[in-house]
Amino acid sequence: DNIEAAKRRAAYKAVEDHFDTSYRYVGIGSGSTVVYVVEAIAAKGRDVTSKIVFIPTGDQSKQLIIEAGLPLGSIDSLPPVEIEHSKLDGLSALQVATGLQDLGLKGKRQSLDVAFDGADEIDEELNCIKGGGACLFQEKLVATAAKKFICVADSRKLQPRLLTKWKTIPIEIAPFAAPTIKRILITLGSPDPVIRQGGSAKAGPVVTDNGMWIMDAPFPPLLLASDLKHGDHGDGENGTWEVHHLGRRLKRIVGVLEVGLFHGRNGLQVASAGEEGGGQKP
Ligand code: DER
Predict the structure, then answer these.
(1) Which ligand 1 atom sits nearest the alpha carbon of residue 133?
(2) Tens of pLDDT, residues 133-189
(3) Which one, 39, 62, 138, 280, has the greatest CB density within 10 A?
(4) Under a CB-based contact definition with an 8 Å cutoff, are residues 210 and 137 in contact?
(5) What is a single cellular component term in the Gene Ontology annotation (predicted)?
(6) Residue 139 burial by CB count (10 A; 0-12/13-18/19+): exposed, middle or buried?
């Protein structure tokens, strides 16, 4: 039908524009759209794909890579980065960790050449809500480990601001902390956070690939640059500022593993600080 056709077109375009045969490590996301990304890459033939390691973002993504005959890697098998210990002489932990002292390693934070993934909602600044498929932790781990994060989505996902059509922020949490996290989210203005249930697929909560639960927290729509006087927060695209700071506030709740807010172009710089996924044109 035309939605599947739109997903496929978006996926083939993303691969055409952002996949390069010189790449060595490629992240593969989760969901139904990324299936077409794998199809488009596999179509390039084994002489291309056999030289590349494909990094999954969960069990579905892993199956996708295996079934497409692509070489399977894993995020914990990537080459390590080394630091010359002499560079730390006389510096405090805070000075090095906050980059006050450039260790010349920033460019080495991303070990993947590119990561392709879907999203549940995207705004015009390429901020995304992710986690509809309950894979957001490994998706963000891989997205922030990639030099380029390509979000692939059909036009249904594009909204003027986040939380327009997709009403909740998926949050991956430690099951034991669920009541406490729910209480805190309510005090932060989320009217009715719910633990995602398996429904007919599984009695009780959905258990993620990491043995965690998903709490879906409804919030009012996020703001965009157009909602605020430019520069209110003094760092360019305000919408991204909103997403970034809401994401960090939610991430700080004890028991939260990861939050399903990825932020856009601005985020690319922040992503290089290893905080959140950045985004390229879908
Ligand atoms: O969980 C996620 O963020 C996935 O990327 C997913 O929600 C996208 O799913 P779709 O491609 O099937 O719409």
Answers:
(1) 1
(2) 999 999 999 999 999 999 999 999 999 889 999 999 999 999 999 999 999 999 999
(3) 138
(4) yes
(5) cytoplasm
(6) buried
